[in-house]
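Below: protein 1.
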Amino acid sequence: MEVQSNAVEFLSQRYAICPETNLDYTYSKMTFEELNGEYTQERMDSVAKALEEVLMSALPQGCITVGVYEAAKSLNVDPDNVVLCILAADDEDVKDVALQIHFTLIQAFCCENDINILRMNSTRRLAQILCGGAERGRPSGGEPVDLHCVLVTSPHSNTWKDPALSKVNRFCSESRCMDQWVPIINLPDR
């Protein structure tokens, strides 16, 4: 009984902090672990699949900006057009102080401008999706592509109504309401 009252208290506190979240819809489908900030593996796989769908549908539309510097320029010019920011770093990148400073600045800018952010622990799967199967973001015979920051923008022609994007955005919103400002997602290897 005490656990149930704690959950109700938790929900009422979270609803007060995050009023834009539809309490009945969002939290009614969440498990107790999710209420404590722990997502089930099934839920994480579902969001990872949705993220992959977003990337694969945005790429042919030209709605992807790749690279830390290119992303910073795009954010500076038109932040209202950005619908998602993905920051990816491999294990060896964690020690790159300059990259971590760039990540911090991009995260701060995205939070200030209400842009959803996700973090990934690997650039390899991003390279497979965004560079047509090229290993480590190196197109055949070309220079390596900086996949540390990927922005997904909305096409100017119309409002982008993608159910996969809605799912990713809902996950980001739920994570923020649980004080996880930059949730970590890992795309499954293929």
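Below: protein 2.
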Amino acid sequence: MPGTGSVAQLFGIRWRAGTAAVPRISADSDESSDGAPSYPLNALPTRRDRPEGPEMTTADSTANLSDAVTYRPGKVRNRVLWTLQILLGLFFIIASGGPKLVMPNALADNAPENLTIPFGLLIFIGVVEVAGGICLMVPRLSALAAAGLSVLTVLAAATQAFIADKPAMGIFPLVLAAIFAWIAYERRATLTDLRTSLSR
């Protein structure tokens, strides 16, 4: 056969009297009996030999996490959130925190007998409420303010229920706490924006 020898040499096969001597594959050696490289029978395919396919990388997981963190509410939900934020912010500035700063003595005198709040603590609560109401209306601070006011209202409900012995008075603060928690959850992307602006 013309050209058979060159083809046989190309594939590492010796032709003898019209028959091909197939190289012997050894499980322990790196070369066959004809000097051609051989591979162990129990060799497993390496990462380089595996076919290419889609796989989850660190960049992909980071991107998915970033998408979850930068969640933005829809148009209708955003309007509802802003309505609540403005109303509750004004309520805490004018009706709740403001009086504690403007007339703390009158509030302390009208407090129930079993609920004695120190003057300094009353001023501190008023400052926190006014600051929380203002920050609630600032886009980048809304989630942080809502989370803080949620904790504050839970403490207020616990005070009414366990110290003032008026559990019914703790219902309204708990409702506010649930609303603030929902606002903080929906505005959680602002925490990322705030962290980014502070890191610059």
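The first helix runs from residue 4 to 10.
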